[in-house]
Amino acid sequence: MPQTDAGTIRRELFIQTDPATVFAFLTDPDKLMRWMGTQCQLDAQPGGVYLVNVTGRDVARGAFEEVTPNSRIVYSFGWDGATMGVPPGSTKVEIDLAPKERGTLLTFVHSGLPQPAIGPHTDGWTHYLGRLAIAAAGGDPGPDPRIKAEPC
């Protein structure tokens, strides 16, 4: 289960593949969209754009702050339209990857969230990190039930 405190979500997750593969699923647009999003633009270098249309209507936006290949990614994060009081770039996501026997330990921290946003973001990250673990390990997480169809 994720841990939360004062605007922060923390999660550790074991993924049955090497850190380089997990890193690619976090930084390569085609691989990222296998587990999250309908469109994305990623420029995984300090100052580069982080832009993911997560559900077909909810767009996450920020900028990469730190990128250490195969071990660490830090980016600012928020939502177009300031959904849940989290405007673009207003929070921080930190992901560390450490090799473990036959896999990778992913440590995830999302900080700076206003209290009302903790629950929905905990739910969202639990959902998407689970899908990441499946996809990065070579599985198919299936269609994302959170994708919102456009009205006819």
Report on the structure:
The protein is α+β, with helices and mostly antiparallel strands. The protein has a single domain (6-136), classed as START domain (Alpha-D-Glucose-1,6-Bisphosphate, Chain A, domain 4, 2-Layer Sandwich), CATH 3.30.530. It is 23% helix and 36% strand. The protein is built from 3 helices and 8 strands; from the N terminus they run E-E-H-H-E-E-E-E-E-E-H. It has helices at residues 19-27, 29-32, 115-136; strands at 3-5, 8-15, 39-42, 49-53, 59-68, 72-77, 91-100, 103-111. It has an 8-stranded antiparallel beta sheet with strand order 1-2-8-7-6-5-4-3. A hairpin with a 5-residue loop joins strand 4 (49-53) and strand 5. The termini are far apart. The model has no long low-confidence stretch (mean pLDDT 93).
Structural class by sheet pairing and helices: alpha+beta
Contiguous helical run count = 3
**Rg calculated over all Cα atoms:** 14 Å
Largest sheet: 8 strands, antiparallel
The number of distinct structural domains comes to: 1
